[in-house]
Amino acid sequence: MADIILNQDSGRAAGSDPEAVPAEGEPIWDLIELLFFAYRDFVSDPDHVLEKFGFGRAHHRVLHFVNRNPGMKVADLLETLRITKQSLGRVLKQLVDQGYVIQKEGPDDRRHRLLYVTPKGEQLAMRLAGLQTVRIGRALAELGSGAHDGARAFLTTMIDADSREAVLRFIARADRARRPR
Amino acid sequence: MADIILNQDSGRAAGSDPEAVPAEGEPIWDLIELLFFAYRDFVSDPDHVLEKFGFGRAHHRVLHFVNRNPGMKVADLLETLRITKQSLGRVLKQLVDQGYVIQKEGPDDRRHRLLYVTPKGEQLAMRLAGLQTVRIGRALAELGSGAHDGARAFLTTMIDADSREAVLRFIARADRARRPR
DNA sequence: GAAATATGTCAACATGGCTGACATAATTTT
DNA sequence: AAAATTATGTCAGCCATGTTGACATATTTC
Q: Which end of chain B, C or N, has fewer beta carbons within 10 A?
């Protein structure tokens, strides 16, 4: 089943404009729609768990990035999430009040509030990441060896060229942070 | 640039549980985060255009699927988007009132309201799809030949097994619909 | 000491989800 | 033909999460 009989439209129709990829010809419908559906399901697993905690997606994003980057500054989080401090403030306050995140004064600059997950916070963050890992792991297992690298390469190049380097640096740095040397 | 030096964690740590992928071991951080960032940028291009029209993401989704599936019923759209008819009603009404979508009485069952984009609606839908196609096309071009198939396979298996077949059927059907035989 | 920076907070507003209740028209069932 | 079901629409209100703008506080830098 799942016989893949989609449009093999890779002909690109030899548009009169062989320049700078201005999206001549037919849109790449299959990937546009698969991204929509895949992402929808990808976030739905955490959503169900979060609901039981009275949290939403916004809480998930904060918890995720704080867990991945213990000690990050509020400003870093704002830049990563690309939301306003007021939006962040609302969910962050709840996470702090309910003991999922703590804030420590910055050692060098005491204006900074460095963010850390508590054990309770880490437990939830890891549980949510685990759900998403199950889905991804299942997909990769179904696809065979090169799939992880392939997916990583595709998703990476889908990111704005400007942000790409920063994202990769973030991931690499977070891996070091969570993997005590 | 964009040197890929991420965690090559494909060792899976040989967990004591070789069963049913229960997310033992370390989460697949890189793909979790790349999905987040890639999707964020993927929807940001249309967002900017939609803003000028006074529309939001909700309008985009409706316009997209109606454009892809001319003559679809309201019930189909509700199922595809997985929202309530009240939520749909709000944005659909605006799209109809402003001449982007029209509704026709169903020929066999006159309770049905079959949805169609107008020329104006199609133009906007295609413009938005074009933006997303530029991004995807750029990524695929950067990656070489097998990338399209690889991305399709990965995203497909990321979808809930239940919905997968329906999604593929939808895409295949829509391709026929927009490609007058 | 003044200016800039990091963070927090109050108030108000917009979008787009949701539930519940109810209305209408058309079709299907009995 | 009457009754029940179905497809759609609509009103009212709530919630989560995004936004702007204004302002307060503590701290650091100039």
A: C
- Domain ranges for chain A: 28-178
Q: Which fold has domain A28-178?
A: Arc Repressor Mutant, subunit A (1.10.10)
Which nucleotides in chain C lie closer than 7 A to a protein CB? 5-12, 15-21, 25-28
Using one digit for the tens of pLDDT, what is the confidence trace for A54-67? 999 999 999 999 99
User: B35-74: per-residue pLDDT in tens?
Assistant: 999 999 999 999 999 999 999 999 999 999 999 999 999 9
Show Cβ contacts of residue A35 under 8 Å, excluding neighbours closer than 6 positions.
B39, B42, B155
Helices (H), A6-160: 29-53, 57-68, 74-81, 85-97, 119-143, 147-158
Nucleotide nearest to B60 (CA to C1'): C16
Tokens in use for B161?
């097994």
**What residues does B116 pair with on adjacent strands?**
B102
CA A119/CA A141 separation, integer angstroms: 31
Tokens of B111: 């309770």
Instruction: Decide if B124 contacts B53 (C-beta within 8 A).
Output: yes
Statement: the CB of B56 is under 7 Å from strand C: yes
